[in-house]
Specification:
The complex is a heterodimer of chains A (493) and B (214). Chain A is 31% helix and 15% strand. Chain A is of the alpha/beta class and 493 residues long. In chain A, helix 6 runs parallel beside helix 8 (240-248), helix 13 (379-389) crosses helix 15 and helix 13 (379-389) runs parallel beside helix 16 (475-484). Chain B has 214 residues and is α/β, with parallel strands linked by helices. Chain B has 2 domains: 7-172, Alpha-Beta Barrel (Aconitase, domain 4); 184-214, no CATH class. Helices cover 31% and strands 14% of the residues of chain B. Chain B has a 7-stranded mixed sheet. The longest helix of chain B is centred in the C-terminal third of the chain and has 14 residues, at 193-206. The chains are: A alpha/beta (493), B alpha/beta (214). Chains A and B meet through helix 2, helix 3, helix 5, helix 10 and helix 11 of A and helix 4, helix 6, helix 7 and helix 8 of B.
């Protein structure tokens, strides 16, 4: 694993560690990241800290109340209220919406968001609005996310928006407040890493498998202190939905931001979105966006290349996304791990997951299946899962298989295509949009000891409910696990 | 933010890598709209034997005797020692709020996740990055019959583990400055109002579609 270092986080190994933040040479080839960074520098102070302009911010109910309270306490107002877009997503129920939010603590948090947006003039898609959904689904869907911009949100999966060639990263609540008040953030430039996925993917292998394989290769701290630019034939061949899945999980590799170059796929996805520039302005914008791509010969601090054809459908076995193997693989043996810290992590993980070394992944039985989240809750994901589920039945041993669309508009699109009927005929529950069982802040959660095939992004201890056991997979692999009651290789069903 | 002052405290050895923010403060406690009160729920799933919910009286809950935070040797510890990639995962600032609320002031690890590192600094917590071998030595000193006492000197950027050699630590000069002075970032940035407005005027001319309705 590479040594990990945060921007502004000192290197323990070497004070003289190289940095791409070195003085730029005028006219030298630049990466997409460098161009985005340079275009947003407001000022550099005597410590070398940059005041970076933030074009837009997405706001949700969990990480914003204390930020609004801070503004109120200091008598400050948002600098550009309409550069923000707010939506409740983490706490919203995915069933029986007519009852509202039953949990009074969750309800207060969502009501607080609504009140704050009214007080401070922030645009909001409230519960019940058909545009409501997960922040990282609705931003792109609305054209609020555009290429070439800087975008932040009080949520680590903001890296998703890098799929548009935008510099997008998660921030804490203090920084949410900072952006509301100043439209800027104090930042240090990250280092850059090119992750090239060369050649073409095999049949049945998806964007989710790419990013899990990358995390398996570089580790959950492999990208710390870096911005990852994903490139190569396999990435260019992905739809925008697939690209968002890849960038979404850049944070699970430790990178605050992921990026993908802008091409016709990007432009055509953005064209005609409600908040995208209209008419002639769009063509001007598109020309500008295409000029932002990395120049030939641009230098990266680190380059990782992976052969697409070697990537197989992936399944995590442990409690960190780096604990991942191909579906044809086995649960690893901590005794074979030379690094004692890592061996200890493996032992902890196996005990928590109740798995034994050497167990084949294919064949591990699951209790629940969750299809959704900001990683895999978009229309293409639902199509892929429906394709596997069509004409089959969820195994009797599976207690619950649920499909949670990423937004109200994704839900409407899926229903227009008849995907909901495929799912319900197969025995899946078809739910309302939200974050749901990705992090179990609403009523959707695992009971202690339950094992889940999930299309979400984190398999941390307790993530889907205290004592719950999460295996991360692609939507097609999750649907196949629901049908068979255990993990199977989706290429063989 | 309060200025960071030098102090002497006790080290809690949390011998784990990749301690994520879900472990530091589980999701059910993020429903609070306050900044304080998270301390009793710090490491909730490791710390207690029952299932934690917001509003519980934690003094009545069964403690997990195997979790290091419950070891009487480390009662009142205010320096946390951990392994690589501490604070990975979610951007929730509730994680440093919970650590600070519990009384921690310094965190030591070979590396921290980026967002967590920033969040810690903004809450007056000092994250100290040391080489893995040095962290390993500190674990050896900290896991003994008695807790390891340590003095923290932010001005000189040195740790003084009692009975061992002082350990210098690196820190970004801006972070050093902010912690020592207890500075409010937003007030600092607002002083740059004219520079920000000038930038916006240039930006509006270059990419007018980003300023169409605001």
């Amino acid at each position: 694993m590479a040594s990990a270092q945060s921007p502004g986080q000192p290197s323990a190994a070497s004070a003289a560690a190289q940095s791409s933040a070195a003085v730029p040479v005028p006219g030298a080839p630049r990466t997409l990241y460098e161009k985005l960074w340079d275009a947003h520098v407001v000022r550099v102070d005597e410590h070398g800290t940059t005041l970076l302009y933030i074009d837009r911010q997405l706001v949700h109910e969990v990480t914003s109340p204390q930020a609004f309270a801070g503004l109120r306490l200091a008598g400050r107002r948002p600098r550009r209220p309409r550069a923000n877009l707010a939506v409740p997503d983490h706490n919203v129920p995915t069933a029986d919406l007519h009852l509202g939010i039953v949990d009074p603590v969750s309800r207060l948090q969502v009501e607080t968001l609504e009140a704050n947006c009214r007080e401070f003039g922030i645009p909001l898609f409230p519960m019940g609005d058909r545009r409501q959904g997960i922040v990282h689904v609705i931003g792109p869907e609305q054209g609020f996310t555009l290429p070439g911009m800087t975008l932040v949100c009080g949520d680590s999966h903001t890296s998703t928006h890098g799929a548009f060639g935008a510099l997008a990263f998660g921030v804490g609540t203090s920084e949410v407040e900072h952006v509301l008040a100043t439209q800027c953030l104090l930042q240090r430039k990250s280092r850059s890493m090119l992750v090239s996925i060369d050649g073409q993917l095999g049949r049945g292998v998806t964007a989710k498998d790419i990013v899990l394989a990358v995390i398996g290769a570089i580790g959950t701290a492999g990208g710390t202190g870096h911005v990852l630019e994903f490139a190569g034939e396999a990435i260019r061949g992905l739809s925008m939905e697939g690209r968002m899945t890849v960038c979404n999980m850049a944070i699970e590799a430790g990178a605050r931001a992921g990026l993908i170059g802008i091409d016709e796929t990007t432009i055509e996805y953005v064209r005609g979105r409600p908040l995208a520039p209209p008419g002639e302005a769009f063509e001007r914008a598109a020309d500008h966006w295409l000029s932002l791509n990395s120049d030939p010969g641009a230098r990266y601090d680190r380059v990782v290349r992976i052969e697409a054809a070697l990537i197989e459908p992936q399944v995590t076995w442990g409690t960190s996304p780096e604990m991942v193997v191909p579906v044809g693989g086995q649960v690893p043996d901590p005794a074979a791990e030379p690094d004692p810290v890592r061996a200890a992590s493996y032992r902890h993980a196996l005990a928590y997951m109740d798995l034994r070394p050497g167990t084949p992944i294919a064949g591990i039985a699951v209790d629940k299946v969750f299809i959704g989240s900001c990683t895999n809750g978009r229309i293409e994901d639902l199509r892929a899962a429906a394709e596997v589920a069509r004409g089959h039945q969820v195994a009797a041993s599976v207690k619950l298989a649920m499909v949670v669309p990423g937004s109200g508009l994704v839900k409407a699109q899926a229903e227009a295509e008849g995907l909901d009927r495929i799912f319900t005929a197969a025995g899946f529950e078809w739910r309302e949009p939200g974050c749901s069982m990705c992090l179990a802040m609403n009523a959707d959660r695992l009971a202690p000891g339950e094992r889940c095939a999930a299309t979400s992004n984190r398999n941390f201890e307790g993530r889907q409910g205290q004592g719950g056991r999460t295996h991360l997979v692609s939507p097609a692999m999750a649907a196949a696990a629901a049908i068979h009651g255990r993990f199977v290789d989706v290429r063989e069903v | 933010m309060q200025p960071f002052e030098n102090f002497t405290g006790c080290v809690l050895p949390l011998d784990r890598a990749n301690v994520d923010t879900d472990a530091i403060i589980p999701k059910q406690f993020l429903k609070s709209i306050e900044r304080t009160g998270f301390g009793p729920y710090l490491f909730d799933e490791w710390r207690y034997l029952d299932q934690g919910e917001p509003g519980m009286d934690c003094s009545q809950r069964p403690l997990n005797p195997d979790f290091v935070l419950n070891d009487p040797r480390y009662a009142g510890a205010n320096i946390l020692l951990a392994r690589d990639n501490f604070g990975c995962g979610s951007s929730r600032e509730h994680a440093p709020w919970a650590l600070a609320d519990q009384g921690f002031r310094v965190l030591i690890a070979p590396s921290f996740a980026d967002i967590f590192f920033q969040n810690a600094i903004k809450n007056g917590l000092l994250p100290v990055v040391l080489e893995a071998a040095v962290v390993d030595r500190l674990f050896t000193l900290a896991i003994g019959p008695r807790a390891l006492e340590m003095s923290v000197d932010l001005v000189a950027q040195q740790l003084h583990p009692h009975g061992a050699e002082p350990i210098p630590f690196p820190l970004d000069p801006f972070h050093h400055h902010c912690l020592l002075k207890g500075l409010d970032d937003i007030a600092l940035t607002l002083q740059q109002e004219a520079v920000i407005s000038a930038y916006e005027a240039r930006r509006r001319a270059a990419v007018p579609w980003l300023f169409a309705d605001c």
